[in-house]
Structures are given as C-alpha cells and as structure tokens.
Inverse folding.
C-alpha cells in the first residue's frame, strides 16, 4: 500500500501562486507515473497534470501555461506550482500515483490524466480562489 499526503492548499486571491506538495511513502522511481487531480462540488474528479517515469508530462488544457508539475525523487515529493489562479480553479486537489505493486500491475510509464489510470490517492487539500 502507498500513502500520499498533500499539503499547501488554502484560501488565495485570484492571481495568486500557491504550490501544492505531496509526500509519498514509496520511492518515486517505484511508481509508473504520478499526477494531480481536482474535484469541485458537483463535478467529477479530473486530471490536472501528470508526470511519467519516462520523463514526459501532460497537462489539462485548462491549466496549460499556468500550472507546473515537478518531482523531487530524493525527498519522495510531488509538487504542483499553480500560477495566475482563477476562481474556476477552486477545488479539492488530490495527489495520485500508479505503481506496479497492486493489480492491474501497470506497465506504462507514460503520464496519464484518467482517474482509472491510478491506484493510490491522497486525502486531498482544498484550494479556494476568491475574486
């Protein structure tokens, strides 16, 4: 089992630039890929950004150019730098990981933005953007 713990959420004003952090209980190299998702009330959980062990990165169109995903393998950390936040970015943000230690024993190391592409989830951190 993998534990993921997010931090860095809170209330920010429109245009703000907070950074979310996620600490993993396993080595980053042991994952296939990791990602950030968000879910606003009444909406489905949706992928925001993902980074694969192959070095590639994917972003949702809504955050391209504003958000940056990164990793620090030595610290087992995943980050999401969010810039130029808008009220529409208000949501619970989740860290997620896929690892070949649990069914379906995934083999892909490319980034992914689908909810069903992931095996482990954090509890989430709330980001609220006020105009």
């Amino acid at each position: 089992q993998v534990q993921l713990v997010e931090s860095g959420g809170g209330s920010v004003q429109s245009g703000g630039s907070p950074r979310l952090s996620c600490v993993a209980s396993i080595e980053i190299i042991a994952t296939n890929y990791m990602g950030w998702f968000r879910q606003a009330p009444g909406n489905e959980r949706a992928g925001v950004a993902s980074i694969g062990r192959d070095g590639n990165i994917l972003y949702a169109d809504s955050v391209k150019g504003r958000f940056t995903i990164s990793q620090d393998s030595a610290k087992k950390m995943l980050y999401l730098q969010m810039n130029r936040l808008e009220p529409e970015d208000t949501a619970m943000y989740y860290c997620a990981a896929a690892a070949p230690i649990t069914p379906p024993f995934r083999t892909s190391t490319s980034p992914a933005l689908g909810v069903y592409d992931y095996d482990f989830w954090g509890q989430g951190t709330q980001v609220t953007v006020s105009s």
Summary: The radius of gyration is 14 Å. The longest strand covers residues 91-98.
